[in-house]
Amino acid sequence: FRSWHILSHVSRQFVNRFLALDIHREKVQVLIMDDLILLEAFARLKSKGFDFELVFSFHGHSFLFGGGWSQQVDKVLFLTNLGYEESVERNEVFTPIVSVVGNGVDSSRFFPLSQNEKMARKVELGYNPESRILIWLSNPRPKKGFHLFKELLKRIIPKFQGLEIIVIGSESPISEDIPNIRYLGKIPNNELPYFLQIGDFYAFTSLWKEGFGLSLAEAAKCGNRIIAANSGGIPEVIS
């Protein structure tokens, strides 16, 4: 029943469009992006005698295959080697060929400023050129560790009185006792480098197993020192 349900109901539109291409005589590669249900649908289709190469590009940390259909998957693209190793441990049988392909960061946009440029940018934004700036970027969901960031600030603000804080992606107030904090809320992606380039430290407090953490890589490329949770693929990205 599951095979019928996946092929004829859940993934019907994708499967029907693929079958309508009528490409049985050609060597075809099917790439599934980050969707295990759709991957299962095409694996089950392949097991019915359709000949194509099935590739899964996974953008989380690790995953668990749901059944014997997994042996129809030819290749899996992981973001980190840690994610690959954990997935192998979680699955009793893991037959696909594997490649590790990390997220790309546009170096023409995300790069460190020279010291003079960085100081000038800080002045432009109303900061003391000698100030140190700590940045946090995400939404305030618990799995992103916003509550941890609040605790972090409680501990470091008394020790480093001149530390400036920038919060991007959230407008939730942390504390009225922190005067030197700026909430930017949601900003367009093309504006991120402008602020990340003035940062000295970047807090990545995510508590779920991140596949790669694109904002983490972007902040590091802009010259920030990283304070991060030891979870998922994060340690490998930092190293």
Shape: elongated
Tell me the series of helices and strands, N- to C-terminal. HHEHEEHEHEHEEHEHEH
The total of helices stands at 9
* Unreliable stretches: none
Q: What amount of the residues lies in strands? A: 15-25%
Strand order, main sheet: write it out.
7-6-5-8-9
Rg from Cα: 23 Å
Helical content stands at 25-40%
Mean pLDDT: 91
Structural class: alpha/beta
Would you kindly provide a written description of the structure presented here, covering whatever features stand out?
With 239 residues, the chain is α/β, with parallel strands linked by helices. The strands form 2 sheets. It has a 5-stranded parallel β-sheet. Strand 3, helix 4 and strand 4 form a beta-alpha-beta unit. Helix 1 crosses helix 3. The mean pLDDT is 91.
What is this structure, in a nutshell?
The protein has 239 residues and is α/β, with parallel strands linked by helices. The chain has helices at residues 2-10, 12-20, 36-47, 81-90, 115-124, 146-156, 192-196, 214-221, 234-238; strands at residues 29-33, 53-57, 75-78, 97-100, 133-137, 164-168, 181-185, 201-204, 225-228. The strands form two sheets. A five-stranded parallel beta sheet has the order 7-6-5-8-9.
Question: How do the helices and strands line up, and which of them pair or pack?
Answer:
Elements: H1 2-10, H2 12-20, E1 29-33, H3 36-47, E2 53-57, E3 75-78, H4 81-90, E4 97-100, H5 115-124, E5 133-137, H6 146-156, E6 164-168, E7 181-185, H7 192-196, E8 201-204, H8 214-221, E9 225-228, H9 234-238
Parallel strand pairs: 1-2, 2-3, 3-4, 5-6, 5-8, 6-7, 8-9
